[in-house]
Structures are given as C-alpha cells and as structure tokens.
Design goal:
2 copies of one chain form a homodimer.
Chain A (H helix, E strand, L loop, with lengths): L1 H22 L4 H21 L18 H20 L3 E2 L5 E3 H4 L21 E3 L4 H10 L5 E10 L13 E10 L6 H17 L4 E7 H11 L6 H8 L7 H11 L4 H11 L2 E2 L1 H9 L7 H19 L6 E4 L12 E7 L25 E7 L3 H5 L8 E6 L1 H14 L11 E5 L5 H13 L4 E3 L7 H11 L3 E5 L1 H6 L1 E6 L5 E5 L3 H11 L1
Parallel strand pairs in A: 1-4, 6-8, 12-13, 12-14
Antiparallel strand pairs in A: 2-3, 4-5, 5-11, 6-9, 7-8, 9-10, 10-11, 14-15, 15-16
Helix pairs in contact in A: 1-2, 3-6, 3-14, 6-12, 7-12, 9-10, 11-12
C-alpha cells in the first residue's frame, strides 16, 4: 500500500515534469527520456495492482447534499432555529471528535457503533455519537449550572444503514436543552411547546406527542413483579411496542427473558393505557401503582406537566402513554416522543429510523424525542455535582426526507439561488457594459448575475433565468445604452419595459419586494 | 484497557442497582449484599489503575464555541453568506470523511497531517483536509461541468497547533468556487470582487489583495535559469518572502537548495516588483520574461483581469505582486491572497496561521486566498475530463479571532439571544399568569422568556434582562390583572407604562421594530 502510494506520487511528479518540458519546448531527446521514465513508473504500478481502479464515491452510509437538498435543508433549519430563538435559546458548538473516554460508558450496547479515529500518536479520539454527551461534558468542564441552548450538528454511528429509507451513518441532530435547578416541569413543558410549534410550522401533517416518565415505568415494573435486575431488559422490550403487537412483546418477555406470565399480563394492562391528566390522577389511585413511591412521584409530575401544557395551549396533541419507553440509559424523569399520524407522502418505511431524533431506536414516523436526564452532567464532574437537564432532539433527517418527497410529489420548483436580476445583452461585444451594470446592482445590494461568456446568446441567458427561477432580466443593447435606459423583462410574463438607468435600482427593489 | 472499560461499565450498572434498591426500600440485607459487590468491583478497578482520573477536556487542538463566540460567528457567516448569495451562488455539503484514497496524492508533503479513521472493518476513511478536494470529487462523481457554489464547513489537520495564536486542528473553511468552461478571467475577477465586498463589509480595516499567476512564476523561474526540477522547491522558498527578508530567502535558495547566485539575483529583481496593469504590460516587453510563452500567457491574463477589476470597481485594493507564490500544488493559473494592513487589534501573532484561508501556509494578516485550478477535477474523472475551476477561501477563523479581540478591546456587549420581552411578575403565585402571557407572545411570533421558578424575585428577573440585553419587561401583578393591563418596562430607561392586554402585542412590535 505504502509503496503504491509512493509510486503514484512519483508518476504525478514525473507527468508534471514531462508536461512542463513540452510546454517549455525542451529538446526531443530530453522529453523522450522523461517520458520513458514515466512509462516505467506506470508499468511498476500496473505490476503491483493491475486492476486498481479509482473508486468515485462517498464513504458508506454518507451522502453529499446537492443544491436542491441544501435549499430544503436551509428552509427547515430556519424554521427550527427561529423557534429556538423565540424561546430565548443561545447556541454553542463542540468539536466533531471527543476523547474516546468521554464517550465511554454512555451508550450501553450501542457503544460498538462509535467511530474511532486511528491512533496516530497522542490522544485516543472518537467521533461524537450524539450532541447530548458533548453538551454534558461542556457543562461540567465550564462549570455551567444553567443554560438554555440549541446545537445543530452532525453525529456519527457505524450502523448498517438502509439509506434508501433515509438512514445514514452521518446525520444531523438538532437539539434544544435546558439545564438548571428550577421548579418542576416548567422547562419540561416548554420543550413540548417547542416540539408543537416546530411540527406545526413545518406543516408535516397531523402529529401526536407521547409522554411518559422513567419513574412511572420503573414503578410499573416493580409493582408488576419484575425483578429489579430485569428492569432494563424488560424496558427495552416494552420499547418495541410501536413496532410489534402486544402478543409478540409478551412472548419476548416471557419466553426469551423469562418473566412470569402474571407480571407480563400486569404490564400489558398498564401499557395499553393512554390519556391525559385524568389518567395520571386515576393511576395515583390505582392500588398497585400507588405502592411505588417512584411511580407516584412520576405521576404527580405528569399532572403538573399537563397543567402547564394547558397554559401553553398544546394539550390537543399531547397524550400520556404508558407504553412509551425510550431505550436510552440516561433518562431519569419525563420522556417524550412525537410521531406523525400520516407517515409521510411515501410511507414505504416500515423500519426503525436511526438517522433520527434522539439517541436510540425510534418508532415509525417519529420526528422528535427527548426527556429529562438529571444525572449525566454529574458523570463528568470530578465531584459528581449534578446539573438537572431536560431536552428535545428534532429528527431533522426524517423531516428532510419528508420535505424532499413532498417537493417531488408535488413537483415543486425549488430555487437554489436567490438571484433577483440577470444582466443580459441581446447584441455582441457588450460584456464590459454588462459587467458595469451588474457592479451597480451589487453596489446597491441587489442579488444579480451575469453570464461569463463574452457573447452569450439572448436565448441562453433567458433560458438560465427560467431554469433557476430568476424573476427579472435587465437587457442592454446599443439603443438602450444610447438612450440611457435598460430593458427590464419580467421572466414569467415576458413583459418588457424601458427603465431609465437613474431609477433602475429603485424599480428592481420595488418589483422584488412585491414578489 | 478493554478489561478496565468492562469493569467501569459493571460498576455503573451495580451502582444503579444499589440506588434503585435503596429508593425501592429493599431489605437491608439485600442492599448490603449489592453494596459489597459494588465495593469489590471498585477495588478491582483501583488495583488495575489506581491513579486513573477522568480528564475533562476537548481533544488537542480543538475547542468549544461558547454562546458569545457563536454570536460573533453567526454575524460573520451572515455577512459572508449574503455576499455569496448576492453573487448567485448555490451551496452544497459533503461528508466530514472521505475514502482515504480520495485524498491521496492531493496535498504533497502535508498528507501526513491527514486524520485517518481507525480500521473498524470496511472502507479506509480520512477526515477531510480541505473543501476543495471534496468539491472536485463531487463534480467528477456527478458529472457536473458548471456550478457556482459556496461551502462552509469544518476541516481537519493534525498539525501542531498554536492555539493561543488562533491555530486549530479543527477549523472552518468558507469556500466560494466557480467551475465551468468560460471566457477568460471573468469568474476570476468575480472572486476578487467577492473578497473585496466581504472584507469591506466586515470592517476589518484596510486590506490589500495580492495577485499573481502560477504561469508567471514558472516562466520567471525558467528565464532566471532555475532548472525545471527545482521549480517547486524554489517556489516554496519564494512563498516565505512575506515572513522573512529577501536576504534570508536568497540564502535558502543558494545555500540550502543549491541554486546559482545569478539565478537567485534574477529572481530577486522580479519578486520585488509590484504594480497593476502597467507592470504586466512592462513585463510583456521585458526581454527575458517575454521569452517564456507561459509567462506571456499569464501576463496577458493579468492584463485582462485588471480590465475587469476596473469595471468591478475594486482596483483600489488589488496589486499585481510577483512575490506571491502560494504553495499548493493544484493551482494552474491566477493566484491571489488578501492581507489586512493592520493585523488586528492585538498584533501579537507573528506566526503563520494555519486555521486560515486556503490550504497551506498563509502570511501574517492573510484573510483570504485562492486561485485557478483547472486540473483537479480531471484527477477524479475516469477519463481525465477536465473542469476548469477558480475559487477563493475566506479565512474565517482568523476573522473570528479578529472580531473577538475587537469586541473585547472595545468592551462591546454581545447579545447571545434575541429575546425581546421578559414576562415577569412582582408578586408571588403568578406563575400561571406569566405562562399564559408568554404563550400569547409566542403565538404572535414574539421572542419572549419567562423565569422557570414559581416565585422569582422581581430584582432577579430585571437583572437577567440587564445581563442578557433584553430590551422590554412585561410585568404582571394583581392590580394589572384586574385592570386588564400589563406594565411594560423599558430596561434601558426604567420607564414604565401600563398597556392594555388587547394592544400589547402591537405595542411590543412597534417598540422592538424601532430598536
């Protein structure tokens, strides 16, 4: 491998030498000598690996975003960021890689999906797996005890991606978190309000936000007779309820995990329950559930949460759902997940989506998720000092796919530039005049383009406007120059009108602010 | 290492078991048994590595951006992106890592600075080193022959960073490139116009844009008597002219690289030349320089470039400077570099900055650089099909530092949020009323905040406004609720006025649009 690279390098240099000798008109003998050297090198490479063919692709599980995809992405980001800013969030950024040990012990089984960097001497590094652990590290490192921040960035998971279903190894996460010791459930309620605002504004169709609490789950397991050391494994089975029917979930609990039939049935009764504040009230009276202090604490908080959600005017979409589990270890209190009722224009995906909301398996149609994690920051603090946190992760990769599909289905024309005016000419030899005019427009802050050919055809200039959605063309010709005017053409209507150079800027501003 | 991690994992789980048993009020015997197991595990770890102390830091050469830094960054990005959009650019994105072989043979000696990912099975991957090579790969892969695009993203170099001087291993690049077969020098001139616009708008003080051409350099070396195979090494010595005096550069050429004294002196004459179109004209008449076809082609293009720069109104800052070399291999024509005349508020840095413009060593004060690279895309095309490209990279890391220093020096107050109104109360038990009001504001699209405590002190609510620059406070009290009004307080003047609930939104909009 090393040898091959060196030979390739040598071939490149030798090729350059030959090229330069030719362009500098060196003697034929000299050139021939250098060409011979080049051929020899190439033969060497051929002998080493004759079939070597350069592979032109992106790394497995990754993709480029083309301008159209970027335009959609920008629109989605703007909506989401506006919402975060409306709620007074700051933003931070952290490096794409962390010390390996920073990530160690945070993701349970999924740790095997972490990308490690090669040991090239120095620290052992890994690519971030989510934005939550770097956030907790940031808080502990800077001794920050309260902050409301968002962070939009790419994370990395060595998963086996099904890219046709929108799952990638490199994907965006879009997190909003509130850290700080506050009176109960107000920040939690604000996170749900934010999910409600974003999903409504993005116009993704109807949605539902499921809410539960880690303490209610644990309490439910305890009072149903699940042994303490099985809480986690049973929880992860419950987590599958959105992908498989109760019978299969029960079978896994009993047959694979060895839970008693009675315990499973008791769990089955609870996890079928959905409701609002009333359900929390009812469960507080439930003779079994009320035996668990943890469950009672969780249920009281759910009641309080719903009272705030009413004030925030979002109860229409929120449902208290005892089957919501969310696999992630670090949650300690309320958890939630938003699902689309109509799973996209093209509902082919009957698969768990990973390049998606939060940090583990998310059900079909899930577009946001999060919860309270009061212990994570303490894992980084040398004295274990805790900073309570609650947050939400918007599943923007899924939202991107949805928007892309929608744009395609509706054959929407998506502009990839914001150009307002194309400076064109109908006659030859007016390049300099075009450049002069486009400079005037740029000076006035108008978004303008000019073709880079000396003598482009008018038709091709107009065609470019059609293709890229430029609304106006400023056409120059000998006559217009003599008259001190510009022919302003509206691309959509083909209407043309002469505008004096003195008022052109004003006229363009007037017309483009209308649009 | 592996064993240690497993033990740490086991300790975590065991700790959790103990915690839960306690919270579930298990029997003392049971708890004691589990605590004993926990202590045993801890002892095991201690024996393995007693001194192990978790290191709370970011990876070497990287940093977090705090909200204040992010606010500055956002401002700079907005200015730059607006300019790119004004010139009709689209944007693309590529993955943070590429196949290792995509980067192979593109960076010469600097290839050793590339971060590789660990071989975890599958493809060999590396973190991107710049945005230009991924761009060329993208064009070849998608058979794109013309595009005008910008790309802002982080790149990675395993350099020995001097972070105090603003050099990092992870840093932003901010590239604008025009690909396509066009009539000469128009896209090249637009790149310079863009540099001019951005540096002017960012208000970084006076600047200069140096321009040269790779062909003029090569021709100059040829007519000065530099042997063909020494072009590159002599070029890289010339590149040091902005950091050391001519005498030292000459000494390196003659003593270290073995160039003849006469050739060095001839080069010395040329590289001291600076001017505009007139200098290009004069050199076309120069009896030595005119012997090189390459040099003549470069000089004619410089003349043409300056004629377009005049139309673009940027010649005030552009200078044709024969000492500008730029080390990167892939340049084939015009090259340029922008330098600040006053190198920042705090001119401590007398060092080459790497987290900076383009792709190699950049001189003191350099804030942008680029050039024409007509051969790079062809290196990726299976048939070697070339796509001519010209581009510029804005050195935003350096610009960030500059802005940060400026903000600090002028003690500027930088807002990290955009909140317009704080909803506060002077009395207790008004949490619900505050939440109701803030919901009304959010519904109207107003950026508003509320404190998460049930009964915060008015003083601390006002203090928060002072600290974070919130201009207005909407104060609720029993009396205001009775009267159907809100007391609107202007934080700056402390002026307070009662506004009816019905007109509050309108009033806030009026006041904040004024600001």
């Amino acid at each position: 491998m090393e040898g091959k690279t060196q030979i390739q390098e040598a071939i490149k240099i030798q090729g350059e030498v030959v090229r330069r000798m030719k362009s500098e008109k060196a003697s034929k003998e000299q050139i021939d000598k250098e060409v011979a050297k080049l051929l020899e090198l190439k033969a060497q490479l051929g002998g080493d690996d004759g079939k070597h063919q350069f592979v032109l692709k992106t790394a497995k599980g990754t993709r480029d975003y083309n301008p159209k995809q970027m335009a959609i992405r920008e629109k989605v980001f703007n909506t989401i960021i506006s919402c975060f800013k409306r709620h007074g969030a700051e933003t931070i950024d952290t490096p794409v890689f962390e010390l390996k040990e920073t990530l160690t012990g945070k993701y349970g089984e999924d740790s095997k999906l972490i990308y490690d960097l090669k040991d090239q001497g120095g620290e052992l590094l890994s690519l971030r797996y989510d934005l939550t652990v770097p956030f907790a590290r940031y808080l502990a490192m800077n001794k920050i005890t309260n902050i409301k921040r968002y962070h939009i960035a790419k994370v990395y998971r060595r998963d086996n991606p099904a890219m046709t279903r929108g799952r990638y190894r490199e994907f965006y996460q879009c997190d909003f978190d509130i850290a700080g010791q506050y009176d109960g459930m107000v920040p939690d309620a604000e996170c749900l309000r934010i999910v409600h605002e974003i999903l409504s504004e993005l116009d993704l169709g109807d949605f539902r936000i499921k809410v539960n609490d880690r303490r209610i789950l644990d309490g439910m397991f305890a009072v149903s007779g699940v042994p303490d050391d099985m809480f986690r494994t049973i929880c992860s089975t419950v987590d599958k309820l959105d992908k498989m029917p109760w019978e299969d979930v029960k079978r896994e609990m009993v047959n694979e995990k060895g839970l008693s039939e009675e315990a499973a049935d008791q769990i089955g009764k609870y996890v079928s329950m959905q409701g609002g504040m009333d359900l929390a009230e009812r469960l507080l009276q439930d003779h079994k559930m009320s035996q668990s202090k943890q469950a009672c604490a969780g249920l009281s908080d759910i009641k309080l949460l719903f009272s705030y959600l009413q004030l925030f005017q979002v109860t229409d979409k929120v449902v208290f759902d005892l089957s919501l589990a969310r696999g992630l270890d670090y949650y300690t209190g309320v958890i939630y997940e938003a699902v689309l009722s109509q799973p996209g224009v093209q509902s082919s995906s009957n698969e768990v989506q990973n390049g998606s909301p939060a940090d583990e398996c998310i059900s079909v149609g899930s577009v946001a998720g999060g919860g309270r994690y009061d212990g994570l920051v303490g894992m980084f603090d040398p004295n274990g000092k805790k900073v309570p946190c609650v947050g939400v992760s918007i599943g923007i990769e899924r939202i991107f796919s949805f928007m892309e599909q929608k744009a395609e289905a509706l054959a929407l024309k998506i502009r990839t530039t914001e150009v307002q005016v194309m400076v064109a000419s109908a006659q030859k030899n007016l390049m300099e005049e075009r450049l002069k005019l486009v400079t005037e427009l740029w000076n006035a802050g108008i978004k303008a383009e000019v073709m880079y050919k000396r003598n482009p055809k008018l038709l091709s200039q107009l065609q470019h406007c059609e293709d890229s959605g430029i609304p106006l063309v400023a056409i120059l010709g000998e006559q217009e120059l003599k008259d001190g005017v510009v022919k302003l053409r509206v691309v959509a209507t083909r209407e043309e009108v002469d505008i004096s150079r003195a008022t052109l800027i004003e006229e363009i501003r007037r017309r483009t602010s209308e649009a």
